[in-house]
Specification:
Layout: H1 6-18, E1 21-22, H2 23-29, H3 37-49, E2 53-58, E3 61-66, H4 70-85, H5 90-100, H6 105-126
Antiparallel strand pairs: 1-3, 2-3
Length: about 130
C-alpha cells in the first residue's frame, strides 16, 4: 500500500469520518480559510488513482467513499514502521515507546490490561 501525503491523509480522515461525501462536503470539513475546490479535487483524483477512494456518479457529480479503511491503513503503516525502525520486533517498539513517551501510570495500567486480555485470548485459543 502506498503512503499518503499530508494533503491526501487529511482528505482520507474526513472521508473515514463521513463514510461518503461529495466534494462540497469534504471542502466544508476544512477550517477557514478553506482550500479551493480545484485543489481538493486534484488531491481526490490522485486518491482515486492510488485506489484509496472510489466514487458513485450522479449526473456530473461524484460521491466519494473510502476503499481502504482507517484501521487497514494504520496497521500497514505501523507494520512498516516496526519493520524499518525496530527490526520487525513489536517488543522493541513497545520498549522504545514506554521509554521515550511521557506515559503516566494510568496509561501504562491500561496498556497492561490490553496485553493481559490478549494473552488470555491466545491461551484459550491454544487449549
Amino acid at each position: 500500500m502506498k503512503d499518503l501525503t499530508k494533503a491526501e491523509a487529511q482528505i482520507m480522515q474526513y472521508l473515514w469520518r463521513l463514510k461518503s461525501a461529495f466534494l462540497k462536503d469534504i471542502v466544508e470539513q476544512y477550517p477557514n480559510p478553506k482550500p479551493a475546490y480545484t485543489t481538493i479535487s486534484t488531491v481526490i483524483r490522485v486518491l482515486v488513482k492510488k485506489k484509496f477512494i472510489d466514487y458513485n456518479t450522479y449526473g456530473k457529480t461524484h460521491e466519494y467513499y473510502p476503499l481502504v479503511s482507517k484501521d487497514t491503513y494504520f496497521k500497514d503503516r505501523l507494520k512498516g514502521m516496526i519493520q524499518n525502525f525496530f527490526n520487525g520486533s513489536i517488543s522493541n517498539f513497545a520498549h522504545f515507546f514506554t521509554e521515550n513517551e511521557e506515559m503516566n501510570l494510568m496509561e501504562l495500567e491500561k496498556m497492561k490490561q490490553f496485553i493481559e486480555a490478549k494473552i488470555e485470548t491466545l491461551k484459550e485459543e491454544n487449549e
